[in-house]
């Protein structure tokens, strides 16, 4: 079977005449993740995706589409974080009916070629999986979690020489359900933290007084959360980058809510949690990050930012049905917090890595 692989053109707007390929790129990505995981809670918002792809200050993107008979049947992407030197994130998505035709393999090889052109040698990607798909499982080196050994995403990555590094659990919290467990956990966590810690919450642009501390905490996300055997490089965030993110979210019609715990004696941001939703507030909310700075761990600050975030987000965006989050299966502390407040697992994600020769 013959396919053609073409560069993806990034349009100025989703309704432009030349935006069809980009819309197909977005649609196929969502369709593939739904098919692989059995859930639609992690659908990407089209306007948010376009704005991320148009940003060039801190990241750059390159995309490819595979066609058969003129129709787009697969999409591949490369994301380069400009503040690191070696790693790059890639993705390949295939339309239904083409999972085992070989087009994904061809597109993956082409994306690897793009990475080489950009001087990146360590490629990382994530695949989605159903919790009940098949008896034979692959277990990562962490020993925590497992994925089906013979579904199409797993077989594709193994064929291409990628190593399974980690398994993450995708969990969902019902924003329209009971908050009794949230309130109980928050009360006990605040008592444990003590008077040296103050909670801050906002939605929309980052307040000036918290920008520097929040940016430092976001930078630590790339190295201080459990990453299995993945290569990690610290990404740089500062107040200017947060401002760029605020502007991008505003252009896309997206909203972010942030919870901080501030250490009063030093003024440092000790923990944070952030949530984001696209312009359609009836869709699920994505949790983007939760981190307690290592020097402030052991005081249940992760429970505080999680609980305050859920409470305030429900009031700010009452239409959203749920929050979706990903946590490493070896991150037992955060899984304990999630389980205590009522998150339930709905799917799993596998982290893969390959070093180019």
TrEMBL record:
<feature type="domain" description="N-acetyltransferase">
    <location>
        <begin position="12"/>
        <end position="154"/>
    </location>
</feature>
<dbReference type="InterPro" id="IPR016181">
    <property type="entry name" value="Acyl_CoA_acyltransferase"/>
</dbReference>
<keyword id="KW-0012">Acyltransferase</keyword>
<keyword id="KW-0808">Transferase</keyword>
<dbReference type="InterPro" id="IPR050832">
    <property type="entry name" value="Bact_Acetyltransf"/>
</dbReference>
<protein>
    <submittedName>
        <fullName>GNAT family N-acetyltransferase</fullName>
    </submittedName>
</protein>
<dbReference type="GO" id="GO:0016747">
    <property type="term" value="F:acyltransferase activity, transferring groups other than amino-acyl groups"/>
</dbReference>
<dbReference type="Pfam" id="PF00583">
    <property type="entry name" value="Acetyltransf_1"/>
</dbReference>
<dbReference type="InterPro" id="IPR000182">
    <property type="entry name" value="GNAT_dom"/>
</dbReference>
């Amino acid at each position: 079977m013959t396919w053609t692989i073409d560069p993806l053109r990034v349009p100025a707007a989703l309704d432009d005449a030349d935006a069809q390929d980009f819309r197909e790129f977005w649609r196929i990505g969502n369709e593939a993740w739904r098919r692989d995981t059995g859930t639609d809670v992690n659908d990407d918002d089209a306007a948010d995706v376009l704005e991320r792809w148009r940003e060039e200050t801190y990241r750059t993107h390159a995309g490819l589409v595979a066609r058969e008979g003129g129709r787009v049947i697969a999409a591949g992407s490369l994301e380069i974080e400009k503040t690191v030197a070696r790693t790059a994130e890639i993705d390949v998505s295939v339309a239904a009916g083409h999972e085992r035709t070989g087009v994904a393999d061809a597109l993956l090889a082409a994306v690897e070629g793009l990475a080489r052109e950009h001087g990146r040698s360590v490629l990382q990607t994530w695949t989605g999986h159903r919790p009940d798909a098949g008896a034979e499982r692959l277990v990562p080196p962490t020993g925590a979690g497992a994925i089906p050994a013979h579904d199409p995403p797993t077989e594709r990555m193994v064929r291409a020489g990628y190593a399974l590094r980690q398994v993450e659990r995708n969990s969902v919290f019902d924003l329209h359900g009971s908050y009794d467990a949230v309130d109980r956990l928050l009360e006990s966590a605040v008592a444990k933290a003590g008077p040296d810690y103050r909670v801050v919450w906002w939605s929309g642009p980052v307040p000036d007084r918290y920008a520097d501390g929040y940016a430092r905490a976001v930078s630590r996300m790339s190295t201080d959360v459990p990453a299995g055997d993945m290569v990690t490089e610290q990404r740089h965030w500062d107040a200017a980058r947060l401002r760029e993110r605020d502007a991008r979210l505003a252009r896309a019609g997206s909203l972010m809510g942030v919870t901080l715990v501030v250490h009063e004696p030093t003024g440092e941001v000790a923990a944070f949690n952030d949530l984001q939703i696209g312009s359609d507030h009836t869709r699920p909310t994505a949790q983007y990050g939760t981190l307690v700075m290592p020097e402030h761990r052991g005081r249940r600050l992760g429970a505080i930012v999680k609980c305050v975030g859920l409470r305030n987000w429900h009031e700010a965006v009452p239409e959203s049905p749920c929050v979706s989050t990903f946590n490493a299966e070896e991150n037992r502390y955060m899984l304990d917090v999630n389980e205590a407040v009522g998150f339930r697992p709905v799917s799993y994600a596998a982290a893969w890595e390959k070093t180019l020769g």
